Amino acid sequence: MIFDLQNILALLTIFTGVVTLVDYILTRRERKERGKAMTYPGLIDWCRSLFPVLFVVLLIRTFLGQAYRVPTGSLEPTVLPGDLILVSQYSYGFHAPVWHTELVSMSDPKRGEIALFRWPVNPGVTFVKRVVGLPGDHISYVNKVLTINGKVATQQFVKKDEDKEFPEQHIAVREYTENLNGVTHHIWVRPDVTPHDFKDLVVPAGQYFMMGDNRDGSDDSRAWGFVPKSAFIGKATRVLINLKQLMAFHDVFGRSGRSLSK
């Protein structure tokens, strides 16, 4: 059992639902006699009031979408720490709450998409990265340049910048646009970090290779391996607002509503 927000919400919904149902069965005759004058003990009253709300929220969060707060800068400069992103829960399929087994498969993750998934090392932790390698792909990463199935993901220099996630460290980065087999997006690389090269890595069937756009500041598939399709939660579609900027009242709406879908 993974005790994350989704599972806690599901368990609370089940608990309040069972209490409400049992109370309804046991007090049905009494309610007919007393009507609106019927009063309920504290816990039962709490469950009766909360169950409909929890049930609707669980349905929305399981089958439609959720807002996810990005905790780190692994996807900079595309997604910043503190960004609240909208995640489409139905893009890849519908999963049962608590057990997370796939009920209906909708589509497979596509290269270039930013996806939310359960970290294979610890499924209780949620990660968000970009889909780079698909099942069967041959991937190389040499001198911080990707090659996928023999095709180089070309890069174009944009500007020099500084990683503002750690302003006290003054981490210099270089921003490039990268053409990921037709999907163009921005990446950061650090000139002071030695590249972790690998050649001709083959992505197994049913697995995906995930990377952050902050190439030298991302804990991703290069460190812990592939992500199975069953671990995917949903596709990030747009940035809603940056919570850090909201708290600081700084450029709150500058990036709000920006689409992440290609």
Low-confidence stretches: none
Structural class by SSE content: alpha+beta
The SSE string, one letter per element, is HHHEEEEEEEEEEEEEEHEEHE
Mean pLDDT: 86
Count the DSSP helices. 5
Instruction: Supply the CATH class of the largest domain.
Output: Mainly Beta
Would you write up a description of this structure?
There is one protein chain. With 262 residues, this protein is an alpha+beta fold. It folds into 2 domains: 5-62; 65-259, Umud Fragment, subunit A. It contains 5 helices and 17 strands. The chain has helices at residues 5-26, 28-34, 42-63, 221-224, 243-248; strands at 65-69, 83-88, 93-95, 102-105, 114-118, 126-133, 138-142, 145-148, 151-152, 155-163, 171-180, 183-189, 198-202, 207-211, 227-228, 232-242, 258-259. The strands form 4 sheets. Strands 1, 2, 5, 6, 14, 15, 16 and 17 form an 8-stranded antiparallel sheet that branches. A 4-stranded antiparallel sheet has the order 9-8-7-13, with no helix packed on it. It has a 3-stranded antiparallel sheet with strand order 10-11-12, with no helix packed on it. The relative contact order is 0.17.
